[in-house]
């Protein structure tokens, strides 16, 4: 009885692992870092933005996915991306 129960748990675990591996995707995004002039409190200010928006775009992935992010720095400044 204990042996068949262990085999059942093992089979369920392997099936769950196979399903999660089969549903994993490669999600790819490109971020273009550039300067953006914004009007804030009646004055213009130059800020660094990603894909022309502030805040930058939302990146959505699921557990098990592989995320590939291409970053193109088109700003005159060195940048650092923090996740």
Provide a quick synopsis of the model.
With 83 residues, the chain is of the alpha+beta class. 25% of the residues lie in helices and 37% in strands. The protein contains one helix and three strands, in the order H-E-E-E.
List keywords for this structure.
Immunoglobulin-like, Copper-resistance protein, Cu-oxidase_fam, alpha+beta, 3 strands, 1 helix, 83 residues, signal, copper ion binding, Cu-oxidase-like_N
Report on this model:
Strands 2-1-3 form a 3-stranded mixed beta sheet, with no helix packed on it. 25% of the residues lie in helices and 37% in strands. The longest helix has 21 residues, at 2-22. A hairpin with a 2-residue loop joins strand 1 (26-40) and strand 2 (43-50). The chain has a domain at 23-73: Cupredoxins -  blue copper proteins (Immunoglobulin-like). The protein has 1 helix and 3 strands. With 83 residues, the chain is of the alpha+beta class. The N and C termini lie far apart (49 Å). The model has no long low-confidence stretch (mean pLDDT 83). GO terms for molecular function: copper ion binding; oxidoreductase activity. Residues 33-83 form the Plastocyanin-like domain. InterPro entries: Cu-oxidase-like_N, Cu-oxidase_fam, Cupredoxin.
């Amino acid at each position: 009885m204990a042996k068949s129960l262990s085999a059942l748990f093992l089979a369920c675990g392997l099936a769950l692992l196979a399903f999660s591996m089969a549903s994993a995707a490669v999600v790819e995004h490109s971020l273009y870092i550039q300067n953006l002039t914004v009007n804030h409190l009646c004055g213009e200010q130059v800020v660094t933005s990603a894909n022309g928006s502030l805040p930058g775009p939302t990146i959505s992935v699921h557990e098990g996915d592989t995320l590939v992010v291409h970053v193109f720095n088109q700003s005159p400044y060195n940048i650092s991306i923090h996740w």
